[in-house]
Write a structure and sequence with these properties.
157 residues; mainly alpha; 2 domains; 7 helices; elongated
Length: 157
């Protein structure tokens, strides 16, 4: 019920009704919403058609299947792709932050050069993910370098 109240405060009345209603009614409302307005996540992010740059819009048949409690195949694929993308982003976020931190606290130019090579290698790896995973901007990395006197050696990280 608290989810319904939160949604009402955000002005999402149809979603609030979905959250408060029994599952049978909720599934019907969800199907109608995804047919009329397109598919979105619980947080309001747009779900895209698999392999395309347009919002997933359920057909009348798919909305009916959703209303009966079945997840349409296209919606299931969209959920899977979204989950894969989120996993990729989390996996590479830690690597990106480690490289940035190591560069920021590097003591010598030689160590910084090694870390720049690591960043370039990271960028080559993430390039295949079509902008799902952000690359490391080498110029930005150099600008955020720790001023002299505050340096620490993280070469053994």
């Amino acid at each position: 019920m608290t989810q319904a109240v939160d949604l009402i405060t955000k002005g999402q009345y149809l979603r609030a009704t979905e959250a408060a209603a029994p599952m049978m009614v909720s599934n019907v409302l969800k199907g109608v919403r995804m047919w009329a307005n397109g598919a979105t996540t619980q947080k309001g992010r747009i779900l895209f058609e698999a392999g395309e740059d347009r919002q997933l819009q359920l057909s009348v048949f798919e909305a009916g299947a959703q209303g009966l409690g079945f997840t349409p195949e296209r919606l299931s694929k969209s959920y899977s792709i979204q989950e894969e993308n989120r996993n990729l982003q989390e996996r590479y976020r830690d690597m990106r932050e480690a490289i940035r931190t190591r560069y920021r606290f590097a003591r010598t130019g030689k160590v910084r050069l090694e870390i720049i090579k690591m960043a370039m290698d990271y960028n080559r790896k993430v390039a295949r993910f079509d902008n799902i995973v952000p690359s490391i901007n080498i110029k930005e990395l150099r600008r955020k370098q720790k001023p002299r006197g505050q340096e620490t050696n993280f070469a053994n990280m």
